[in-house]
Every structure is written in structure tokens, then in C-alpha cells.
Amino acid sequence: MKTIINTANAPAPIGPYNQAVLSGNTLYTSGQIAIDASTGDLVMDSIEAETEQVMKNLKAVLEAAGMTFENVVKTSIFISDMHNFSKINAVYANYFSADTAPARETVEVANLPKFVNVEISAIAVN
């Protein structure tokens, strides 16, 4: 059994998918990019601002499922330029305790939706 998770506090999907799917006690989020849900605009002022918006969107999806970043067991980070890794990582680190941080991978890709610089998805367990 799966439950579809959607919230107005995160960007609406731009394709045939949902913001997240809850299966049992495990939440699978779709990748979040830096779209401000209240305006529909991309936040691209800096890689830090972009990453901050991505994390805010991910937080909104987690909250819609009754979870927090403490529930996250795995993240996937896709970036368009590995030279931005340290800046992205610095913002990302603000959302997790070093002692309980999730497993993750970070992958450089040729392009991302809407030609953003970073996309992050998560798996969380309640």
C-alpha cells in the first residue's frame, strides 16, 4: 500500500510524479530543486541560496508526511558542477546532526531539470 504525499508548501511536480510516496513506514521523496513554492520562481541568486531553497522544499515534504530531517536515512545529491560541492555541503550540513547524518551520494550530472545547479532527494523512515 502506498500513500501519496503532496503539500502546497513545496513546489508542485513538473511532470507525472508526486512530491513523495509513503510505503509502510518509509518515505521516498522526489528530487527537490530550488523553486519557491509561494511564487513559482527559481531561487538562483547563489549556490548557497539555491541549496537553501532545495532544503526548505525537502523539509516541507518531510513535514507533510509527519517527519523531520532526523527521519532521513539516505539522500541523493545531484549537482551540475562538482566545484560547488563544498558550498552545497555547507548548507546541507545545517540540516543534519553529524552524529546522525544519513547515508548519501553526491553525483555530478550534465544537466538537471530547469537547468538548476542542485537537486536533492531523500528516503526517510518513521
TrEMBL record:
Family indicated by similarity: Belongs to the RutC family.
GO MF, one annotated term: deaminase activity
InterPro entries associated with the record: RidA, RutC-like_sf, YjgF/YER057c/UK114
Full protein name: RidA family protein
Cellular component, GO annotation: cytosol
Organism: Subsaximicrobium wynnwilliamsii
Coiled coil: none
Pfam families: Ribonuc_L-PSP (PF01042)
